[in-house]
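Changelog-adjacent note: as of this version, every example in the card shows the full chain rather than a window. The one below runs 202 residues end to end.
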Amino acid sequence: MESGHWEDLESRLRRERERIGIALADERWVREAFRAWAHHLRRDGGTLSHDHEDALAVGMGVSLAIRDALIVSLVCEPEGCDEQRMVAFASRPHDPPNVRVMYRILRRAFDDEDAVLDVDRCRRGLVMIDGIMSRVPGRLRAQPMALSGYIHWWMGEQRGLGLAREALAIDGTCSLAAIVTSAYDRDIFPANAVARSTGRTG
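Full-length structure tokens:
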């Protein structure tokens, strides 16, 4: 895929953000891709269309809230983050109700070893993230790669460390990759990942 394709997409999103506002532009940008993402998480898996992969890759590059909505959709209990909530998190991440709900979801998932981590759901998400990573070039790989590393870390799998390091090699400012790398270095994992296994694999 030529670099102009990605530059055109990013320019289109940025123009829409200026024209109609960040919240509405981001909502329109992710809605169809999030709908497909949520569908594949609920079902037996599958891959996103190229259009949806492109939308998410470019969206994550422009707005980390889009990436964070994908994270929450995977690590929370399945009923905790549907498509509508994902769109709200992505388009209005600073609205107090969204901040409170996201904090509550992530805090419970991280601290409570009895919180349900749906491993099959995570793996279905990783398949879609792998599809994005295999399609996008250079700098656009950093955020989906960090996202993949984060999910592997959350599952207690060692593969996440290599992904986080590779994301940092692409983009040294990728804060999520830095967080994941630091967590591995300090042997810090979510409570339910530690509870799932006595030894981490992957």
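Structural remarks: The longest helix spans residues 22-42.
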